[in-house]
Amino acid sequence: MKNLYITLSFVIASSTLSAQNKDTKNADRLFNRFEYVDAASEYLKLVDKGKADGYVYKQLADSYYNVFNAAEASKWYAKALTEKQDAETYYRYAQMLKADGKYEEANKQLQKFANMAPNDQRAIAFKQNPNYLPKLNEKAKSFDIKSLDINSDKSDFGAMLSNDNTLYFASARNTSRKTYGWNEQPYLDLYSAVYNADGTFSQPTAVEGVNTKFHDGPASISADGNTMYLASESFNEGLFEKDKAQKLKFGQVALFKSVKADGKWSKPTPLPFNSKDYSTSNPSLSKDGKTLYFSSNMPGSVGGVDIWKVSVNADGSFGTPENLGKKINTEGNESFPFITDENKLYFSSDARQGFGGMDVYVIDLNKGTEAANVGKPVNSEKDDFAFSFNTAKNIGFVSSNRGGVDNIYSATPVCGVEVVSLVRDAKTGSKLSGARVAILDGKNNIIATKTTAADGTVSYDVECDKAYTLQVAKDGYESNNFPVSKTRGGIVNINADLQPIDVIVTETEIILNDIYFEYDKSNITQQGAFELDKLVQVMKNNPAMVIMVKSHTDSRGSDQYNMNLSDRRAKSTVQYIISKGIAKDKISGKGYGESEPKV
Fold this sequence. Notes:
This protein is of the alpha+beta class. The chain folds into 4 domains: 13-134, Alpha Horseshoe (Serine Threonine Protein Phosphatase 5, Tetratricopeptide repeat); 143-414, TolB, C-terminal domain (Neuraminidase); 417-498, Immunoglobulins (Immunoglobulin-like), CATH 2.60.40.10; 504-591, CATH 3.30.1330.60. Helices cover 21% and strands 32% of the residues. The protein is built from 11 helices and 37 strands. Strands 9, 10, 13, 14 and 15 form a 5-stranded antiparallel sheet that branches. A 4-stranded antiparallel sheet has the order 2-26-25-24, with no helix packed on it. It has a 4-stranded antiparallel sheet with strand order 3-4-7-8, with no helix packed on it. Strand 11 and strand 12 form a beta hairpin. It is elongated, with a radius of gyration of 32 Å. The relative contact order is 0.08.
C-alpha cells in the first residue's frame, strides 16, 4: 500500500483508457486505473491463450512490481527482456531479483542497465562499487526490531509516536470500507493507539475528525501535540484533472493541516503549495515546528519522487518548498522522510545501494556526511520504509512488507561504539595513509582489518562494554598496539602515533637495538619483532642486500648448551625475517654461543 505514496497519483474511472490492441484492452484499462491485481489476472489470461508478447510480459511484470510480488515480477521481466525494452525495465528487474535474494543475477542486470544509461546516478554508483553488499552485511546493527501486536492482516504503516504517547499510523484494516483496486485492500484511514508504560499498545481506533472516504495518512504531530500534518487524497479539494474522452479523474495526494482544540482534531485544511499537477505526501515536522519535510514529484525533482522541505512561519504561513538536492535525492524515488530532534533525516529510497526493494537511509544534516544505509535488521530484501524515532522514549518504528504485507515494527537502539583511529607519524605529526589497522577482541582474536584512507583514519563499529585492541602497522614504521577501553556508547577516538624506523647502516653492519630473548627461549618477543621489522624494511629498500645473523649468549650454562641455544635463536630470527617476505637466499644465521660474547 505504501506504493500509493511513492507513485503519488490516483485515478477514478468510469470507462477504459486506450489499449495497446484489442486483446489487451481490458487488461490495459485495469492497469491504467492502478488495479494491478486484476490487471495481472487479465494479462495472465493472454499468456494462457498464447497471445502474449514483450508488451504483455512487461505489463504483467510491472503489475507484480507495483504490488511487490518479487518472484512473479522477476519471472515476467525475464520474459519481457527477450524482446527490446528500455533501461528502466532492466533496473526494475534487478530490484526484484535483489528482493528475491538473487544478488549475483541482479548485478548482471544492473550492468546492462548501466551500459544503457551510463549517466544515470544509479548506474554510476553501481559501476563505482558493484560488490557493495559484503561490506553492507558487515555493518554493525543499530537497532533490534519487533513486529507490533497491533498489526492487522492488512496494510499498516507510517507510524510515529507523539510526545503524549500516542502512536499514529495509516491502516487498511477497516474491512467495511470500499476496497482499492491497486492491491484489493480497503482504503486507508489514520489510526492511533496509546503507548503504555509497559511497552504495550491500546487497541487502535480511527482518529476522529480527519478521515475521509478516500485514502488518509500517514501523519506528523507537532512537539506540543496540537498540530497535525496529514497526507490525504486530493479529490476532496477538487485537486484533480478530468479526461472527458476517457471519463476519468486523475487525482493527487496532498498535505493537510489539522489543529487540536478541546481534545478534538479540526477538519483538515489543504496546504497552499498543493497542486493538481503533482502530489505532496509523507509529512515530518521538525522539533521546533519551523520546518516541514515531505515527499513530492513537483517540478524541480531530481527523480520520480524527491524529499522536499518548506519553512513554517510564526503566522502559520509557508515559505517556498525547497528540494533537498542530489545529496539525498536520486533518479529513483526517495520518500517517507522523518526528521529527528537531533536533526538527523531518515528516509527511504529504491535507488541507492541496498538489500533490495526500498531501504531506510540516514543523513546527519548538521554535518557534511553522506547518506548511509541503516543496515540490517531495519532493512531487508523487501520494502523497508517510513522510519521514525521518538528521542524521549528512545524507540523508533519502521514499516516493512518482509512478512508479506506492510506491517509496523518497533526499532530499539542497540548500544554501539564507533572506534575512530587516526594514524600519524610520531615525529612529524603527518597523517599516514595505507596503514593497516586490525581490531582485536579481548582474547586477541582479529575481528577485521582495514587500511587508512588519505586522511589517515579508519573506523570500526563495535559493541558497548567490551575492551578492544587496535594493532597498527605501516612499512617504514614500528608496529604498535593501542588499547580501546570499555565504554557505554558514542565515539572513541584513538590517536595511533607510529615511530619511524631509524636504522644505522654501515658498510659491513646494520646496527639495531639489542634483541633479547626470554631465559632458555628462542621465540621472538614483541620487542624483538619491533627491531627485526626495521631490518626487514631496510632489506626491502635494498633488494641486493644479503644479511648474516649472528646470535650470542652470556656465559651461563655449558659451552654446548649455549651453542645450541644461540643457534636456535639465530634460526628463529631468520625464520621471522623470511616470514615477512624476505627471500631465503638473502638471509642466513648462525649461533656462536659464548665463543664471541657481545660486550
